[in-house]
Design a protein that fits this description.
Elements: H1 15-20, E1 30-31, E2 33-36, E3 39-40, E4 48-49, E5 54-57, E6 67-70, E7 76-81, E8 86-91, E9 100-102, H2 103-110, E10 112-118, E11 130-142, E12 146-151, E13 156-162, E14 169-175, E15 177-178, E16 186-187, E17 197-204, E18 207-213, E19 218-228, E20 231-240, E21 266-273, E22 282-287, H3 291-294, E23 324-327, E24 341-350, E25 353-360, E26 366-370, E27 376-380, E28 394-396, E29 404-409, E30 425-430, E31 436-441, E32 445-451, E33 464-469, E34 479-480, E35 483-484, H4 485-502, E36 506-509, H5 521-528, E37 533-540, E38 551-555, H6 560-577, E39 581-586, H7 596-599, E40 605-612, H8 616-622, H9 625-644, H10 650-653
Parallel strand pairs: 2-11, 11-15, 11-16, 33-36, 33-37, 37-40, 38-39
Antiparallel strand pairs: 1-4, 2-3, 4-5, 5-9, 6-7, 7-8, 10-11, 10-21, 11-12, 12-20, 13-14, 14-18, 17-18, 19-20, 21-22, 23-24, 24-25, 25-32, 26-27, 27-30, 28-29, 29-30, 31-32, 34-35, 38-40
Helix pairs in contact: 4-9, 6-9
Length: 665
């Protein structure tokens, strides 16, 4: 187990120093300015970025309305917010040796969105620039006395009036905020203000504007703030203005940040956070809404269907070489229509490569993850499904690298008329193997690039595989209950070797006995012999015994082939281990440059943390020979599934069977 600090419970040697050596210099850390909820982070410790990840001082939690406490080993931070009803534990990371938090971790916990704007419109993020953590608008509701705007965490706001010409308008500008497409202001069921016209729009990438058209004797002013689990609410109250009094421009709730003035036009950014998980940051571009347009934003959430050109067809597909459309990928969205997913197109590039192009007006932040058996799911948050060819939300591709594409929409409005969640489109890509994927974005489309991953050809028999039992010799690895990691992983690795050889694979061990092996020499051996795969076996460990359990499989950064391999192996182990599955994760979640044994491997490579040695239940599994055999056999199953593909599932074989996609994905 490779961990951040040496503890009494998890004794390791100085692996961190070795990991840091020889890191890729292209990820150099540089200072950046960070804005959270519309306020620039001002701390003695400078925020840092490597162009993809951003690290902030622990004091950044204050801008999120949280209190915190650092554990005595300086490994984690426990934060509380939402009137103390919500809490989370964040791992302390140490870029350049400083104790910091990953901004993406804060975004996931607080329901925010990390945005890295590029003022030059390029698709490559500027490292030395500004980084924004935006709050998400959850609801805008008018009551008898106030306009309540709920966001995922506190933001800076300014409330003012436009009173020089009818209609009179009250304006609420929310700085450091993002308005999801499809979120529509509403009136409370008992409100007398249902006749008010309330509109909302994204003024620029970091400012949301809410406009209320008021009667002759009313104006808006700042009210109170309230907090509940996961959200904060700003109330702007309606007040009666007596005849003859002058117009009041209210004082902002907090200091208005000096944001750069953005002209209307192209804007590019990279986004991650609540909707991105651990996936590769998506390069996105959109067009800003000018201030005057934002103040007159359309109120209708309905999408008008676009017309379909003559000749467009999605039935009876005979050749995967021809683009296959679900809807019309070239249709232009009518002016004034709300953004929605209007078309899905499949393109075969080669026998091993393909793309899926999703046309969706408006800003899109897709989440892509593996389902069981190698299928993929794409979730487009905040975008309803409105295909321009009604009913064509499922297509069969019998000769392609995938077998079917199906799209559904999650509910948006509950039975009581209240918004229950953002409208999401979910696209399921069924495949008989784990495919590598990457994402790209144009002004109106999301492109999912699919390919058969590296060395996923032929049979497992004949493949050359390096099996690496972690630690060894003087390096005991983690220890607990009288057992050492180095000995347990050697037993599992030997069983894995035997099973692989039984399957016809060729296996080379980095060590076959209790001996010290230099960390750098392990992937170097795999590179030298041109291995097809590198499999490293470890045991996990945490700072507090019996607080964590289960299996994790790591892959390097965003390497598509290694990610596919990690998911295939992780699913196979989870099916037989009897322990929780902690998922397949990027090693970028552990260290800035990842794990050296994965970073330096030239082939698909994974590091498997089989179970927690300092969890009594997990340890009882780890020392059980039957469990060791089951894990070894599962790794072989995962490797075989990656190389040879999976048997076709019942869902893929029966296109009429309804796909059930859980709301929790």
């Amino acid at each position: 187990m490779i961990v951040r600090n040496v503890t009494l419970l998890c004794a390791i040697l100085n692996c961190l120093n070795v990991l840091a050596a020889g890191a890729n210099p292209t990820g150099q850390l540089v200072p950046v300015n960070v804005n959270i909820g519309g306020v620039r982070l001002d701390a003695p410790q400078q925020a840092l970025s490597n162009g993809r990840d951003t690290f902030v001082p622990i004091s950044a939690l204050k801008l999120l309305g949280a209190t915190w406490k650092v554990d005595r080993r300086d490994e984690t931070v426990k934060a509380e917010w939402g009137a103390g009803q919500q809490h989370s534990v964040f791992a302390i990371v140490r870029p350049d040796g400083q104790s910091m938090l990953a901004l993406d971790d804060l975004a996931r916990a607080f329901g925010g969105l990390v945005v890295r704007p590029n003022v030059d419109g390029s698709k490559t993020s500027k490292v030395n620039g500004d980084v924004y953590l935006l709050a998400i608008v959850r609801s805008i509701v008018s009551t008898n006395t106030a306009l309540d705007i709920t966001t995922s965490f506190p933001v800076t706001a300014n409330v003012w009036m436009i009173d020089d010409a009818p209609p009179r308008r009250g304006i609420v500008d929310l700085y450091g905020c993002y308005l999801p497409d499809g979120l529509v202001p509403a009136s409370h069921a008992n409100s007398r203000n249902k006749g008010f016209r309330i509109r909302a729009a994204q003024r620029n990438f970091s400012t949301t504007r809410v406009v209320a058209e008021l009667g002759a004797n009313k104006y808006l002013r700042v009210g109170q703030r309230t907090a509940s689990p996961g959200v904060t609410t700003l109330s702007t109250t309606f007040h009666i203005r007596q005849p003859g009094t002058r117009v009041v421009i209210n004082v902002p709730v907090a200091k208005i940040p000096q944001l750069p003035v953005q002209r209307a036009g192209a804007l590019s950014w990279q986004a991650s956070g609540a909707d991105s998980g651990s996936h590769k940051p998506l390069v996105a571009s959109t067009t800003q809404v000018p201030a005057e347009q934002a103040a007159q934003a359309p109120t209708s959430p309905n999408v008008q269907p676009a017309t379909v050109p003559n000749g467009t067809s999605v039935n009876n597909v005979t050749s995967p070489q021809t683009p296959v459309n679900v809807g019309n990928v070239n249709a232009q969205e009518p002016e004034g229509a709300a953004p929605a997913v209007t078309a899905i197109q499949y393109n075969t590039i080669s026998p091993t490569q393909a793309t899926i192009v999703v046309s969706a007006g408006g800003t899109v932040y897709p989440v892509v993850h593996y389902l069981s058996g190698g299928s993929l799911e794409i979730v487009l948050r905040g975008l309803p499904l409105n295909l321009t060819v009604p009913g064509q939300n499922s297509i069969i591709l019998p000769e392609a690298i995938i077998s079917r594409i199906e799209s559904i929409q999650t509910p948006e409005i509950g039975t009581g008329g209240q918004m229950t969640s953002k409208a999401d489109t979910r696209i399921k890509i069924e495949s008989q193997r784990f495919l590598g994927f990457s994402l790209d974005r144009t002004a109106t489309q999301v492109v999912i690039n699919l390919r058969v991953p590296d060395n996923a050809d032929g049979d497992l028999a004949g493949k050359l595989i390096v099996v690496d039992p972690g630690h060894g010799g003087a390096d005991t690895g983690a220890q607990a209950g009288g057992y050492a990691e180095k000995n347990i992983v050697l037993l599992i690795a030997r069983k894995l070797r035997d099973d692989l050889e039984q399957a016809g694979a060729r296996v080379v061990m980095t060590r076959d006995r209790d001996e010290t092996v230099a960390l750098a020499s392990r992937p170097a051996l795999a590179n030298q012999i041109h291995a097809d795969f590198y499999i490293s076996i470890h045991n996990d460990c945490c700072s507090v015994p019996n607080t964590a359990s289960g299996t994790t499989t790591y892959f390097h950064m965003q390497d598509a082939s290694s990610r596919a391999l990690a998911n295939s192996i992780q699913q196979a182990i989870a099916a037989v281990s009897g322990l929780p599955s902690r998922g397949a994760r990027s090693d970028g979640m552990l260290y800035q440059h990842g794990l050296e044994v994965l970073r330096d491997s030239n082939m698909p490579a994974v590091l498997i943390e089989v179970a927690y040695i300092n969890n009594e239940r997990d340890r009882s599994y780890l020392i059980n020979p039957e469990f060791q055999s089951n894990v070894a056999a599962a790794i072989v199953t995962g490797l075989r599934g990656y190389v040879q593909g999976m048997p076709q599932t019942a869902d893929a074989a029966n296109p009429n069977k309804k796909i059930q996609i859980a709301q929790g994905h």
